[in-house]
């Protein structure tokens, strides 16, 4: 019989504003990651010697996030020194990729127990600081018609004929849902408050949520990518998509993912390992998929990757009870909803990154927990987690409640 | 040595003076480099030489760069089947050049460069291979690497030494766009070390040499760091990304050189100088071996030079000089021609029907000169002298004594005949009577002339002061002497002549017509107008195919077509542009930019334009997505090949006979994409046989208009080429 990857627990930190005045700014990324590992151990009374490997997503793995931060965090958390650590980067999909790799290790028999997760202290290690040929090597940029991500989001919206009101309405609803979910305690099972050096609580809630947001308040925000687009990059986009005359620059900080600090960890293992450790399974990571998509447009991967995932699982989008698609930009979510005919009632039911923020390396792992919590709350069975990924990729996973 | 002098003084300083025999400026050709190689060998081996100063004997010029004729000799992909062999040869040849400058800067002896004038391309690269650069405080001092803007790559260490001197950010515009620096600007960014008064650079350079027994380039010192850091310093990474995008936006990725320059900079700066120089050499060879590089060197530099030197001027007629010239009609064209003549020192009579109109014509030059003065390109005194050369008048008696008359009145046969008679009445036997027409046959106009053998067509382009081309149209009775005189006149006003047969649309007007025609075919087919416009720009044409007719005026194109129809009668072949012009002009009263509506709707101030939604009445768009590279390639080919085929037909019909003139005429006359080197060079780039095959395939898919003519077929069959 094929081995299954059971999810025994999922925790996440609150998301702190990704700025020097953010609630997690004074917490190092190693400490942030370690506190998630400590929570997994302490909540489950886990003998950490049973854990074979810890896989964390980490984008911008430089400075304090560099040098395989996962191993450093394992040691900081006081895990058995025999526990390994590895850090993976699939840009925005890193946290989910880490969980999928951990699950694959379990399914293949390489690991009995593994932890997937991710960390991003964006207030401390600025986004993009690690560089990379993708946005510096001119040959690659020529070949790929490389665009800044925000211009790509506006291009996506333009190709889909989205108006500013379309994206702002979606964003306002995300805020409303997130505020409502917090009020309702729907994240309570996953949230692990982050502590400071003396053990006082540094942050216990998502700082970025603005529940009173409306389409009218959003209308006041200036588009973020109009200037750089009109000055330069719209011209590049027009050469890749000659059907475009003008790009509608409609994304702004209010309808795109917030920059935040955060970490998450998901405990994954075989049925036998769970039994031996006295753990009760909450769900199964049934499968995962990744794809490459058109690199200039960059953000069109989700629909294709979810189709690939569901095809392999012999499921249709209509079989899925809830979808968690990372709200990198409002237009990204709108596109997948249209492409796969997903009703808004099933999409990001408790809000998303527009409201709560997107700690790059961690978000995917956070969403595994978010899906599980919601499936358990509603008694439903299937949830899909998906993320659009820089350089034109998409990654997704299927979560089944047990 | 023919090009250099070496004098070693009592203190062991060798003054190496660059002084090409019989030339006004210095360039780097094979002989110059060979001689310099022996100089570098001597510097390295002669113990009596303690240090070196390199200077130029040419006033206002240090060195203008590499000799493009030399580069042309090994440009292009080379003979098919011998690619590996020629590549090895190129690498061997370039390695020698590379070691030359490297040998200079690692001789262990201090080398300073004394710059008193233009220092471009290879000249700037030589300067950067010196340890110290002293420039004179004068306006002739300009430093830069123009190769990038011309489709080439600085291959003498420019992409490596420049960023190591001034940093990545400052290097990008210099390398990619050929941005030049004055002495002060060069000092500010660290490209030169010092500015001294004119005439003192050699002394100062010598003093530096004597005070600097140690001479090591910064990049040869241990722990060298590139100023401003490597490509992964965030500001540099961003600058590279911006300039990569800027290059694509400007050149549509049509110039291979742009990619190669960026690659040489980005990859070369991350390794030690010797490895960097090898990377540059590889990128240089890759660039030079592209058919685009060969075509551009030829059409942008060599062919205009050859054409201007009079290769096609009838021989045996003494060179005529032009002291006085009259221009009939002070409209836009006449005023522009007067401006150019006055600038080149020709006394100019500018005639119109009223004194006001004639004065307005002169005011055009006043305005032009005013701009030159305010931008610091000309002194007020010089501008005054030029302006005084123009005499605005209504009196044909003033024409008397003119060596040539340029008639530039309204395109109407009767009006032209009248003024021709009035002017000729004042002219001497030898004077040339020229008509500036873009449409009317010269032979017909010549019937108004009393001396049809002296009557000739000169088709200027607007704005005359900026457009370098003049089409010479020979009528049936035009004499060789008059033709030779026309060449001399064009040389006198420093334009580039091409000689064409008297036929409808001559050469350039006829060829550009296809730039409207094929896009109209596309419109009628249902290809979205935005796609047509963007693809047109992506071919490298300077203005989109739907914007251009709007700017020229749709009504004008409509009337020209109507006149042609009347002239040709049943022989006229309806085109897609007739259908579209009829729809826009006759049916909807859309006359183009002038009345605010054409293919586009224009805002009242004319600044914002939006494609007119009513175009969908012509055809509901069926192609609204042109992402696919195959689709793009096909559409680009359709637009370029229609013009190219028309140019080839002109060659076949003898409308134009020299391929160099066909190429130069298309590029200078109506902005045919520079990367192609012109339509004939485009055929050569593709290969005649392959071009014929591609056109046949296009004809099968899109219609007989793409079917190539017999000349191309025969050439393909015989394996012949144009050049």
Protein model, in words:
The complex is a heterodimer of chains A (402) and B (723). With 402 residues, chain A is α+β, with helices and mostly antiparallel strands. Helices cover 37% and strands 18% of the residues of chain A. Chain A has 13 helices and twelve strands. In chain A, strands 1, 2, 3, 4, 5, 8, 9, 10, 11 and 12 form a ten-stranded mixed sheet that branches. In chain A, strands 6-7 form a two-stranded antiparallel ribbon. In chain A, strand 3, helix 2 (69-76) and strand 4 form a beta-alpha-beta unit. In chain A, helix 1 packs across helix 2. The model of chain A has no long low-confidence stretch (mean pLDDT 97). In chain B, the strands form four sheets. In chain B, strands 13-12-11-14-15-16-17-18 form an eight-stranded mixed sheet, with helices on both faces. A six-stranded mixed sheet of chain B has the order 1-2-3-5-7-10, with helices on both faces. Helices cover 49% and strands 12% of the residues of chain B. Chain B starts with a strand and ends in a 5-residue tail after the last helix. Chain B is an alpha/beta fold. In chain B, strand 15 (432-435), helix 17 (442-446) and strand 16 form a beta-alpha-beta unit. The model of chain B has no long low-confidence stretch (mean pLDDT 95). In chain B, helix 14 runs antiparallel to helix 15 (380-388), helix 24 (629-652) packs across helix 26 and helix 26 packs across helix 27 (688-702). Chain B is globular, with a radius of gyration of 28 Å. Chain B folds into three domains: 4-289, Alpha-Beta Complex (2-enoyl-CoA Hydratase, Chain A, domain 1), CATH 3.90.226; 324-503, Rossmann fold (3-Layer(aba) Sandwich), CATH 3.40.50; 509-654, Orthogonal Bundle (N-(1-d-carboxylethyl)-l-norvaline Dehydrogenase, domain 2). Chain B is built from 28 helices and 20 strands. The chains are: A alpha+beta (402), B alpha/beta (723). Chain A binds chain B through residues 128-129, 131, 135-139, 141-142, 145-146, 232-233, 235-236, 238-245, 294, and chain B through 231-232, 234, 237, 240-249, 252-253, 259, 262-263, 265-266, 528, 530-531, 533-535, 538, 610-611, 624-627, 632.
